[in-house]
Amino acid sequence: MRISTTRSALLAGAVAVTLSATALPAAFAAPSATAVISEVYGGGGNSGATLTRDFVELANAGSAAYDLSGFSVQYLPGAPSAGSLWQVSALTGSVAPGGRYLVAQAAGTGGTVALPAPDATGTVAMSATAGTVALVSGTTPLTCKTAADCAADTRVVDLVGYGTAVVREGSGPAKGASATASVARAASLADTDDNAADLAAATPSPVNAAGETSGGGEDPGDPGNPTEPGTVRIHDIQGTTRVSPLDGKAVTGVPGVVTAVRTSGSRGFWIQDTAPDADPRTGEGVFVYTGSAAPAVKVGDSVLVSGTVDEYYPSATTQSVTEITAPKVTVVSSGNALPAPVVLDAKAVPSKYVPSAGGGSIDALPLEPSTYALDLYESLEGTRVQIADTRVTGATTAYHEVWVTVAPKQNPTRRGGTLYASYTDQNTGRIKVLSLDPAAPVPTANVGDVLSGTTSGVLDYDSYGGYNLQATALGTLTDHHLRREVTRKQKGKELAVATYNVENLDALDDQTKFDTLAEGVAVNLSSPDIVSLEEIQDDNGAVNDGTVGSEATLKRFTDAIVAAGGPRYSWRYVAPQDGKDGGEPGGNIRNVFLYNPERVGFVDRPGGDATTPVAAVKTKKGVTLSVSPGRIAPASAAWDDSRKPLVGEFRFHGKSVFVVGNHFASKGGDQPLHGRYQEPVRSSETKRVQQAKEVNTFVKSLLAADKSARVVVLGDLNDFAFSPTVGALTDGKVLKPLITTLPKNEQYSYVYEGNSQTLDHILTSPGVRRFDYDVVHINAEFADQASDHDPQIVRVDVNAPDHGHGHGHGGHGHHGHH
């Protein structure tokens, strides 16, 4: 899912903070005689503002210095949503007795007066009118979203809510904040733990530790329209690390030739120096951010740019983009030749992906562009580059972006993609391509197609995939005619079990979506006996009115399967409690079994509901289920706000088969592969490992009752075959992940950011002696897709002998084409 926020929509702000020396107990810290949050201003750079930047000021009324080492200032929106996160700005140094400490935050496009030199710098674009700022002992983001929860967090040293902020101290938030007004504490720095009483609207008056006030050595003033270059060149701005040595500083008359112009979204233009230095680490291109104003330059203009250098972070975990903001531009001449583009190919791009900082930020590490791919791309940020005859590894998206590889021999898949093989084996040649000309977007391409000829433009960075080529000239599409696969029909003695993530299907969806998904089941999967579905929503989808049933959704879907030539499927599911299973709010997502009653029987055992756990029951004839359908340990914290596994007992040719349909927690919240923190933290993994352990425990209970029980565990596990999640699921060798039985270049069912990978899985117990397994590629590699997942199928010979050396088979020799 893509969430896009343009900077023009973000309100800039400033914050002053007075520090409280004691940590907060259940109520906020006792009134402090030392350090408190003293002023908060969220309007820096807004229309009508004088100051160009947001800030937070800390003050110390005590008689001894207040040490800020390891502390942070953190910001939360005034009305936080479920997805709102505290944004962290780390602090160093101390606040002198009677002194101030200034934390600069994001710059806007308005204002004329810069802050005095800040004592710490963050990147937070705060609201001018409503928000919460906390001084925190530590740099780990807070998680509280209410005043009571934040009061209970002992790391919070002081806290100021302003405007209409939900999180605040005392009777209410401080009032009067605007684009031109801060909220500030009285000169006495009195702290009664009541924001409304302690702070009031004021003219923003930032003071730093040196006692300097606005413009102390940082105000660019009016650079006028210089006709001669200044002393600073682009490579001086870019520097030898990811963060400019001139961040926050004014520059005057920076020379360059305009190489590309962006007229929508984040507006601005790129310039490049025609006289580069000899250091490969220091980039020669830079983006000039014009905000809401359309750039008044054209490609080929030789310009002199004055403004403020800024590191823009698209999100809290991404790398930054070095920019010149609030620019004043002199056009010296027009029609100039552009610098020759840097050629990116397999020889140019290193095989190593990114340096390690032990999980910390790589911002300060010196670039090594000959060693690491991300260092090379960073050294070329804003620079003209060129690629040629590149193979598509990620189909064109709804945002008119396509992923290609400039290193085609890196982990190629059988159908033209690039396999994501392990956490340590990154594919360095992946580049996202998009067009700067809205009238000529990138062509509609599928995996394996080729962008033939040369594609050139400037290298940029964003949060949706990292480094990308903003194309000014696109190659032409060579269609390699990728076909959707059709798996073979199961034989009479084979039980065919499939898994398919149908991407938030509900009864309000267009008939076209139902028809396409139905064709996938009836034709491409050749009508399996059992289909475990993920992402079936309640009958009115995202409408949040208490509806939890899916009967209308499943009636439409099974009708569409019949219309596509498939059988009349029956279904079983356990409806969730309203709002308890995560997914789209109001959607009540769940797992569902479809089964063909002409081929397979479902064993109904009453009593299964949203809160009743299923259990294995040992009998003289083998193991059965206590309830069917049922859910695994629904009260376990592993499933909080997440969909619970669905378990069913089926009968085929006189044999019992137990099927467990899963949809584990998503990878949302994990740090990106291309981000500023390396190695990236996969925070969402913790919950999936807990979920995998619950399923593993249940499967072990079945096998303890009957070691030859035939168990098929399948679904969207949201994790890779080499992940700790799958490791926890297979613990004790009770399950075999069938994806690993395929040839390496076929082990995928999902494509993300140009990487072919596996989130979906089918696993079988030792009692499944003979199987034939297939991933059926019909969606993930195509621009036109009914779901972003490919389905998978296993055909099981339930009557294979329980002794001797049975065998499994995974392969691709049985695909037809469609």
Summarize the structure.
The chain is built from eight helices and 45 strands.
Note down, in words, how this protein is organized.
The protein is built from 8 helices and 45 strands. The chain is mainly beta and 818 residues long. The strands form 10 sheets. Strands 1, 2, 3, 8, 9, 12 and 13 form a 7-stranded mixed beta sheet that branches. A 7-stranded mixed beta sheet has the order 29-30-28-27-43-42-44, with helices on one face. Strands 31, 34, 35, 36, 37, 38 and 41 form a 7-stranded mixed beta sheet that branches. Residues 1-26, 216-222, 803-807 and 811-818 have low confidence and may be disordered.
Label this structure with key terms.
818 residues, mainly beta, 9% helix, globular, single chain, 7-stranded mixed sheet, disordered N terminus
Topology:
Elements: E1 14-15, E2 35-41, E3 53-60, E4 66-67, E5 71-77, E6 87-90, E7 94-95, E8 100-107, E9 120-121, E10 131-137, H1 147-152, E11 156-162, E12 182-185, H2 195-198, E13 199-202, H3 234-238, E14 250-262, E15 267-272, E16 285-291, E17 302-312, E18 321-333, E19 342-343, H4 373-379, E20 384-394, E21 401-405, E22 430-435, E23 450-462, E24 466-473, E25 476-478, E26 485-486, E27 494-505, H5 511-524, E28 530-536, H6 551-563, E29 570-572, E30 590-595, E31 601-602, E32 616-619, E33 622-625, E34 630-631, E35 646-652, E36 655-663, H7 685-705, E37 710-716, H8 724-729, E38 736-737, E39 750-752, E40 755-757, E41 760-764, E42 770-775, E43 792-797, E44 808-810, E45 816-817
Parallel strand pairs: 8-9, 16-18, 19-20, 22-24, 27-28, 36-37, 42-44
Antiparallel strand pairs: 1-2, 2-3, 2-12, 3-8, 4-7, 5-6, 5-10, 10-11, 12-13, 14-15, 14-17, 15-16, 17-18, 20-21, 20-23, 21-22, 23-24, 23-25, 26-45, 27-43, 28-30, 29-30, 31-35, 32-33, 34-35, 35-36, 37-41, 38-41, 39-40, 42-43
